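Board notes (copied after class):
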Amino acid sequence: MESATLTRDRPGPIRLARSRAGRSGPWAKVALAALCIGALIGYFAFPTYPTYDSFYALLWGRDLLHLHLPDFRVYRGPTEHPLAIAFGMVCSIFGQGGARLMVLGSIGSFVAVVVGVYRLGRLCFGPVVGVLAGLLVLSRFFMENLAAQGYLDISYVALIVWAIVLEVERPRRGTPVFVLLAAAGLLRPDAWVLSGVYWLWCSWRAENSKRLIYLALAASAPLIWVGLDAVVTGDPLYSLNSTAGLAQELERTQGLSSVVVSVWTFAERIDKLPVILGALVGLPLAIWFAPRRVATPLAALALLVLVFLLEGAAGASVIDRYLIGAATVLLLFCAVTLGGWSMLERGSKLRAVWMAGAAALILYGGVSAATTLSLSSLRTT
């Protein structure tokens, strides 16, 4: 895509600017290099080690490396995640340094999330919105804290975000998007729903041979997961059953009404109230200005929230990390509120009013952060 004109399907009286959404300039490469260097500095300056899920993935990966079946039935053990175990197997080659490599993988995934959200914002709404979307991700201490502790959720989000990016670049792109969603589905079952819906979307106009190929890709993650459970435990549904049982034991289950309330509570914990308010304003603006390009991220957001609700209502654990995918996509719409004025032609009154409103929201967010953020509590923010 060499360029994009920010116009609606049926243009109204609002005059829109022309924005290039193709190749990024040299400043973007400099920013990426600075981001990678900053991530490495943080990695070496503040050594951390993987948490519960990732540590078990490392141990189980080491077992597989030595041709031993891992023990998934340990007391209160986490749910096994095939892709995390595969990465743990690679990391275990480096002995005691493997734990730190698990963290490095999560930090690298966080960088991929920042770049992916920037790319998504640029493709849909232009470079200003893209930069602001990337900065919003960078300012989420909740996500940075998870990355610093090697949580696999960050890698899951990176795969989801880049699947959305590839689909926005070329609708019904097919295989590359299926591969990313399959990889995400080996970290969290939520992505199985996205793969299934995407298969329906691509199959609508595909030939029969392609439909079968796409179906195999869409089904690969659940089949691999079920196969791993069957080989190791003898129960193909072990992950499903053990996760539900552990959720009840740890009192992480909620009724449907409580799960619905948790969507707002967790979103506020991850994104913070000013960002959520900005996203609620940005959603209708995004649909108005770019209905076609916003369709994919909007559909992904709706599906991720729906899966969170359905899983919680079915008795799965209801914890904030499970909403992080939806919370990340939501940042794109807040960026529209903050930078969508760039889609209007220079000199228009609406552009000036929009910029003033965006500045007010930024001021509100800054004051809110200054009055609520505690440096000593960043590990739990």
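Comment from the instructor: The first strand starts at residue 4 and ends at 5. Residues 1-13 have pLDDT under 50 and may be disordered.
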